[in-house]
TrEMBL record:
This is P-loop containing nucleoside triphosphate hydrolase protein. It comes from Rhodofomes roseus. Residues 402-565 form the Helicase C-terminal domain. One of its GO terms (molecular function) is 3'-5' DNA helicase activity. It comes from the Eukaryota. GO terms for biological process: interstrand cross-link repair; nucleotide-excision repair. Residues 28-57, 73-92, 139-164 are annotated as: Disordered. Residues 142-157 have a biased composition (Polar residues). Residues 28-39 have a biased composition (Basic and acidic residues). InterPro entries: Helicase_ATP-bd, Helicase_C-like, HRQ1_WHD, P-loop_NTPase. Pfam families: Helicase_C (PF00271), WHD_HRQ1 (PF22982). CDD domains: SF2_C_Hrq (cd18797).
């Protein structure tokens, strides 16, 4: 009976096994007086959600319970556990209860009538309904038969995830989405960016045969794109260079300036380059053990670090780093657009101006003409449907539920997906929802190939996830913008954005190069593609910000008047009033500054 109801009303009736730990049965867990009004309650996820790196981890060890749940009006008080909420039913007055029962009856009658109208005279509607219901029989992941059943559909046919290399064409996938029973015209806009051919150029003078051979052997690179040649030429002329081209356009070949994956790529390049085997390459970041740091300072030829480490570890101990800094020839800053306001933006609108402002230099060569090829990109703007199509006041379904359902659909067809979430909590909620939904679907095979990537993981867990992602073994990644900032995963097939990125249009376009968006852009989708990106803002005239920088700079090394070229015209005023001068006139930091 319940499976038939779910077959009739798949978006209203939820009949599935869920982990017992996620079943909220205690009244005190729903006591809203102990938390801020309208603030999501994440208590059901607790610390276990924060420490789980794989959705499929320990799924077989969880005890599951069978739940029948009816989705109702989303107006008024929101669920306290977005994405997957099972708890006490709301307290209703007798009048409200009657109204709810009548509403459910009307919805059921309409669904039955629609089934009868759609059934041909040669078919029996009861038989059709019973056949459809078999696809909705819940599978208990705790049972011994789970592994066997999870590999078969309701008809006993084996369910195997296709090889991603054999995935269907995008057009076929979209057509199949539009044929699903749960599809209710969620796609409100489609855009296609056609493929673009690459443009290569001979570099003059040519690279040395040693370097050329190393590129061939380690990276399979036999030619360079026009923007790579332009940047290398400018660097060889001693110019400052900024390169602003599309994601995955080969900028790292120029700079090799991204930790972990790029460090390994550079090491491979050096290893295959005779005469450069002695070059030592290290990461120097928050994960670097204290006992190794002194050795890195003394022996490193190249380090991969970040601005936090420059600020907190390297520059305050300039005397320890003096040998390295005196011999420094090249500084490569990856994802320069990230440094705007305090921190945070995305793809640059005026790259040359931005670099000049950040570094206080004028002679900057700008490379923006992208010579790399790119494949066709299909953009879909997805608007969650109304909970009750007969009631426009019912509100729309949660974007998290829509995103995870779409992600499961794509992964089941061998399409590798990344789901971008705005914040860490959204990432955890999406992971929990995917785990519950895949377990309910009996898809342990998919569940084991999904992981999260966000801040807060241990070094070991992050490296493991990165290795899995780069190798192409994963089907799905749920990530915050930790993966937006340059980690090049070229094997991805689809990107889903859970809500509009906080970084704005530029962040949307960057994540898309690697679909649910806020209602403004649902109604105005052309702005996503045609509206100019905002300029990145750096307030060099803020005395509050400048004083903080000068205090740090004076702590690292005493300042003189000539340093105004880097700090601007307000430097002298702040040094005279907020810093201390020694007997030789140098501005130095002191505790009383």
């Amino acid at each position: 009976m319940f499976t038939e109801s779910r077959a009739l009303l798949p978006d209203t009736v939820n009949f599935a096994y869920i982990p017992k730990a996620e079943l909220r049965i205690h009244a005190e867990s729903q006591d809203t007086s102990k938390r801020r009004e309208n603030s999501p309650d994440y208590a059901a996820f607790g610390s276990q959600g924060a420490s789980t790196s794989s959705v499929g981890a320990a799924a077989d060890d969880d005890e599951h319970v069978l739940v029948l749940d009816l989705q109702e009006n989303s107006r008024g008080k929101k669920s306290s556990n977005p994405g997957f909420a099972h708890g006490l039913p709301p307290a209703l007055t007798p009048e409200a209860t009657k109204k709810l029962i009548n509403k459910r009856n009307e919805r059921f009658i309409q669904a039955v009538n629609e089934l009868l109208e759609a059934t041909s005279e040669h078919d029996d509607p009861v038989t059709l309904l019973q056949a459809a219901a078999r696809d909705h029989i819940p599978i208990d992941p705790s049972s011994r038969t789970f592994n066997k059943l999870s590999q078969s559909d309701s008809k006993g046919n084996q369910r195997i995830v296709p090889d991603p290399a054999d995935r269907p064409a995008v057009d076929a996938v979209i057509e199949e989405i539009e044929e699903q029973e749960w599809y209710q015209d969620q796609i409100v806009d489609k855009r296609i960016v056609e493929a673009k051919d690459g443009h290569i150029e001979e570099i003059d003078p040519p690279l040395s045969e040693t370097i050329a051979k190393a590129l061939r052997d380690s990276r399979k690179i036999t030619s360079l794109y026009t923007h790579q040649v332009a940047a290398i030429r400018a660097l060889s002329q001693g110019k400052h260079v900024i390169v602003s081209t599309s994601t995955a356009s080969g900028k790292s070949v120029i700079y090799q300036a991204l930790a972990q994956d790029q460090r390994l790529a550079l090491e491979q390049l050096l290893y295959t380059c005779p005469g450069l085997e002695h070059i030592k390459v290290y990461n120097y970041d928050g994960d670097t053990p204290q006992e190794l740091r002194a050795g890195i300072r003394e022996s490193a030829s190249v380090i991969f670090t970040n601005f936090d480490m420059l600020h907190a570890s390297i520059l305050p101990h300039e005397d320890l780093w003096r040998r390295f800094l005196k011999n420094l020839k090249l500084v490569a800053v990856d994802e320069l657009h990230y440094y705007s306001n305090i921190f945070g933006s995305a793809t640059i609108a005026k790259p040359k101006q931005h670099m000049q402002s950040i570094f206080g230099i004028e002679d900057v060569e700008e490379v923006t003409e992208d010579g790399a090829p790119s494949g066709r990109k299909d953009y879909l703007v997805w608007n969650p449907p109304l909970i009750d199509p007969m009631d426009e006041t019912s509100g729309r379904r949660g974007s998290l539920t829509e995103a995870t359902r779409l992600m499961r659909f794509l992964m089941a067809r061998g399409i590798r997906v990344i789901l971008f979430c705005k914040i860490r909590k959204s990432c955890e909620l999406a992971m929990k929802a995917l785990r519950s939904e895949l377990a309910a679907d009996g898809r342990q095979d998919i569940l084991d190939r999904v992981m999260a990537y966000r801040g807060g993981y241990s070094q070991h867990d992050r490296r493991k996830i990165e290795a899995e992602a780069f190798s192409g073994n994963l089907l799905g990644i749920v990530a915050t913008n930790a993966l937006e900032l340059g980690v090049d995963i070229g094997v991805l097939d689809a990107v889903i954005m859970l809500g509009f990125p906080m970084g704005g249009l530029a962040s949307f376009r960057q994540q898309a190069d690697q679909f649910p968006i806020d209602q403004h852009y649902v109604k105005n989708p052309s702005e996503l593609f045609d509206k100019p990106m905002n300029d990145l803002v750096i307030d060099l005239d803020s005395k509050v910000m400048l004083e903080a920088h000068l205090q740090c700079a004076a702590h690292e090394m005493p300042l003189m008047g000539d340093d105004a070229v880097y700090f601007g015209p307000y430097m002298k005023e702040i040094c005279d009033t907020r810093l201390t001068k020694d007997k030789d006139g140098w501005c130095v930091f002191s505790e009383t500054s």
